[in-house]
Design a protein that fits this description.
Layout (H helix, E strand, L loop, with lengths): L2 E10 L4 E10 L2 E7 L11 E4 L5 E4 L1 E6 L1 E2 L2 E2 L5 H13 L2 E7 L5 H17 L7 E8 L21 H10 L4 E6 L8 H8 L3 E4 L6 H9 L4 E2 L15 H8 L4 E4 L10 H9 L4 E3 L12 E5 L2 E6 L2 E4 L12 H12 L3 H15 L17 E4 L5 E6 L2 E5 L6
Parallel strand pairs: 1-4, 6-9, 9-10, 10-11, 11-12, 12-13, 13-14, 14-15
Antiparallel strand pairs: 1-2, 2-3, 5-19, 7-8, 16-17, 17-18, 19-20, 20-21
Helix pairs in contact: 3-4, 5-6, 8-9
Length: 397
C-alpha cells in the first residue's frame, strides 16, 4: 500500500471545505491534510492522484443495511460472495458496511454467521469496502409485516439463540431488526442492551402504545422507516408515529423514490433532525445487474425498471439503489448541502456504531476511507483503508 497523495483537491472536512488541498495517505490512515502551499514532496509516493477539476473529495459512505450486490448475497454463505460484494460496494462510494442477513432457518443462519466471521478474520483487508459488522434482519419478526422475509422461517424472539449467534459471529452483530411486541418480558431486548447491540423495530405490527412501551424499555432504532411496520392512523399512530415522535430513536431510510414518497422526507427531517437519520440501500443481489429474476432468501424476485418485487406476491423486496444515488436523491429532494449529505450517508452511521474515532469524516489519523466525486456527482475514485478499490475508467488519465 505504501504512500498515496491526493492533490489539488476540494476536500470536504468535518466543518469546512478546503479548496486546493492535499491529503497524504500512509498505509491505512490519513497521515496529513493541508493546503497545496504546504504539501510535502510527493516524490517518493507510490501514487499521486491529481483531483483538479473534480467536484469534491468526501469521506467514504457507510451502508448499515445491505444484503448483497453484483449477483451475490451474504446469505450465499461463501467467501467468494463476500469478496465480490465488498468490491461492488466500493464502486458506489461505500467504504464500510454491515453485512445484512434475512430470515432463514436457524441452521442456515448459523452457517452464514460463521462464514461471515471467517471472512472478517481472514479476508477483510484494505482495497475493498470493510465489513464492520453484521445486521441481523429477522428471524424474530412479525408474520403480519414480513414483507419479503420468508414466513416459514420466522420464529419468536429468543435471547439464548441470539447469544449463540453472537458467539458464532465473533461478537460481530451490531444491529438486530425484530418485532418487540413479540418479545416476552423484553428478554431479548434486555440481552441486546447488555451486549451493546442496537435493537431496531422492523417487520413489526406493534401498535402505537406497544411501540412507545418498547422505546421506553430501550429500543432506539427503526429499520427502513414506513416499510415493514404498522403505519400511521388517526386512531393509532402505529410504529411510524411512535418513532417519529420519540427524539432518541434513529431511523433508516431508503431514498430510492420507490419505498416511500420523496416528500415524506420533509416530514422526517422536521420530526427527527438530520442527526437521527441514516440513509441505507437495503440492496439485494440484483444491485449493479440487469433486470431479470433473482433470489432473495430462497424466494424469487423480479427486478424491472428499478423495482424489486417478490414474484409471488408483488411485495417490495429490497432495492438496487446505490449509496451514491441515495446521496444524490437526498440532495435533490431536500436541497441538502454537501455536509448535510455526508451526515446522512457517513458520519451519522459512524456515530451510531461507535466508530467515529476512525470513520465518518476526513481527518488526520482516521482510516483513509475516501471518495472522489466528478463534476456530475458520480464516484470516480474510492479508497478503502488507504488502498484504491475503484477507479473510473479515464477519470485520472
Amino acid at each position: 500500500m505504501g504512500s498515496l497523495y491526493l492533490i489539488n483537491a476540494t476536500i470536504v472536512l468535518e466543518d469546512s471545505i478546503l479548496y486546493e488541498g492535499f491529503i497524504h495517505i500512509k498505509e491505512e490512515k490519513i497521515e496529513s491534510i493541508g493546503g497545496m502551499g504546504n504539501c510535502p514532496s510527493s516524490a517518493t509516493a507510490d501514487r499521486v492522484v491529481d483531483c483538479r477539476g473534480k467536484q469534491y473529495v468526501i469521506p467514504g459512505m457507510i451502508d448499515i443495511h445491505v444484503h448483497g450486490a453484483a449477483g451475490f448475497d451474504f446469505m450465499d454463505g461463501k467467501q467468494e460472495a463476500f469478496e465480490e460484494i465488498a468490491l461492488a460496494l466500493a464502486k458506489e462510494g461505500t467504504t464500510s458496511f454491515l453485512a445484512t442477513t434475512i430470515t432463514n432457518p436457524v441452521s442456515y443462519l448459523s452457517h452464514t454467521l460463521k462464514s461471515l466471521e471467517r471472512y472478517r478474520a481472514d479476508s477483510n483487508g484494505p482495497g475493498a469496502a470493510e465489513m464492520i459488522g453484521i445486521h441481523l434482519e429477522g428471524p424474530f419478526i412479525n408474520k403480519e409485516q414480513k414483507g419479503a422475509q420468508p414466513e416459514s422461517a420466522i420464529i419468536l424472539p429468543n435471547a439464548n439463540l441470539f447469544k449463540e449467534w453472537q458467539e458464532l459471529s465473533g461478537d460481530a452483530i451490531k444491529i438486530i431488526t425484530y418485532a418487540p411486541e413479540l418479545d416476552n418480558n423484553f428478554e431479548l431486548l434486555t440481552e441486546l442492551k447488555r451486549a451493546n447491540v442496537i435493537p431496531s423495530m422492523g417487520h413489526t405490527n406493534a401498535s402505537y402504545d406497544e411501540s412507545i412501551h418498547a422505546i421506553t424499555h430501550g429500543v432506539t432504532h427503526a429499520t427502513h422507516l414506513f416499510n415493514g411496520m404498522k403505519g400511521m392512523h388517526h386512531r393509532d399512530p402505529g410504529v411510524v408515529g411512535a418513532v417519529l415522535l420519540q427524539d432518541d430513536v434513529h431511523v433508516e431510510i431508503i431514498p430510492d423514490g420507490i419505498h416511500f414518497h420523496p416528500d415524506l422526507l420533509k416530514l422526517i427531517i422536521k420530526m427527527k433532525r438530520l442527526g437521527n437519520i441514516l440513509a441505507i440501500t437495503d440492496g439485494m443481489r440484483a444491485k449493479g445487474m440487469p433486470d431479470g429474476e433473482y433470489d432473495l432468501g430462497g424466494q424469487q424476485v423480479t427486478v424491472r425498471d428499478g423495482k424489486c418485487l417478490l414474484t409471488s406476491t408483488g411485495s417490495l423486496a429490497g432495492s438496487i439503489v446505490t449509496m451514491n444515488s441515495a446521496r444524490l436523491n437526498l440532495a435533490k429532494w431536500l436541497e441538502l448541502s454537501i455536509h448535510e449529505q455526508i451526515q446522512i450517508t457517513s458520519s451519522n452511521q459512524a456515530d451510531r456504531l461507535g466508530l467515529s474515532s476512525r470513520k465518518g469524516s476526513i481527518k488526520t489519523g482516521k482510516d483513509a476511507d475516501i471518495v472522489v466525486l466528478g463534476q456530475d456527482g458520480a464516484v470516480e475514485l474510492t479508497i478503502c483503508r488507504g488502498a484504491i478499490a475503484f477507479e473510473r475508467n479515464g477519470a485520472f488519465s
